[in-house]
Amino acid sequence: DRLVTAAADGEDRAVEAALRPKDLAEFIGQERVREQLSLVLQAARQRGATPDHVLLSGPPGLGKTTLSMIIAAEMNAPIRITSGPAIQHAGDLAAILSSLTEGEVLFLDEIHRMSRPAEEMLYMAMEDFRVDVIVGKGPGATAIPLELPPFTLVGATTRAGLLPPPLRDRFGFTGHMEFYAPAELERVLHRSARLLDLDIDPAGAAEIAGRSRGTPRIANRLLRRVRDYAQVKHDGRITPEIAAQALDVYEVDGRGLDRLDRAVLDVLLRLFGGGPVGLSTLAVAVGEESETVEEVAEPFLVREGLLARTPRGRIATAAAWQHLGLTPPAAPPG
Ligand code: ATP
Prior knowledge:
The chain has 334 residues and is an alpha/beta fold. It has 14 helices and nine strands. The protein has helices at residues 10-19, 31-47, 64-74, 90-98, 116-128, 165-168, 182-195, 202-209, 216-233, 240-249, 259-271, 279-286, 290-303, 318-323; strands at 54-57, 79-83, 105-109, 130-135, 142-147, 152-157, 173-176, 307-310, 313-316. It is globular, with a radius of gyration of 24 Å. Adenosine-5'-triphosphate (ATP) is lined by residues 7-8, 16, 19-21, 27-29, 60-66, 109, 156, 188, 216-217, 220. The site of adenosine-5'-triphosphate has 22 residues, from helix 1, helix 3 and helix 9.
């Protein structure tokens, strides 16, 4: 229920379909991945061939699903969407693979979470466009080879390093997705505002972009909350003042920290003088589970240079004191 989480909720999914860029030219930012991918696709089109398998790695909400749909659209090919956790048995994967049509794009989200037997089946499918379907059990089991039409696998993972090397090596191209710069998020916001028929000031878009944690999904979500506020409290126009007021109501601060992020920093600074303090002590003081603090709040605080993890515990940086408007204690004499 956090407004600044990068994972998609139901409302996101409903709106995202309408906000997805449809081709590479419309896709904002990620210049390097876009250029590399454009070459891969153009070359495949010229050869009349199916493009190499593509691996997209990067944090959630940066546009991996969107890019996979663009790959299919650019190749004029259908797309099948599934995910690692949905494929528990090799048979699940065999069923999907054997129903693919020639040139189809298979998008496999969270590919690092596939089961081992399915993963091994995928190796052969990617390399030889063939799977061995095992029929029967025990000593009487037989492998029936099944030819597959050429297809393009687009795998998505939050960390390419999590993939076993034999799987990673079977991708012809890996695109590393980066967090978006504020100016790129402003362009995402202007585009979304146009599609949602909203009236937004350039400075209003900048205000929202600065709070969006480098993530288009979060930018689009904050835009919808600001839209509600502008519509209910004002005349609908999104100015920087209205954007700031709206996001203050939702406790997303000027840098994109939410209530939990600020609570962690606040406790670290006020109660523990900036640390070092152990994770579990910090979590108890905030009233959260250690995992929540470690997995939900800390990654962004570390990325923002507000908190550091050291062997002696968590410490706040000078930027953290500044962000919360507090003065660090004077260093002890000597
Ligand atoms: P997850 O892995 O969590 O599913 P994802 O990386 O696949 O996330 P998408 O679902 O592709 O993310 O993108 C999230 C939303 O952000 C979509 O609504 C999409 O419209 C928007 N978006 C992502 N990247 C861009 C972009 N480059 N330009 C414009 N909009 C974008």
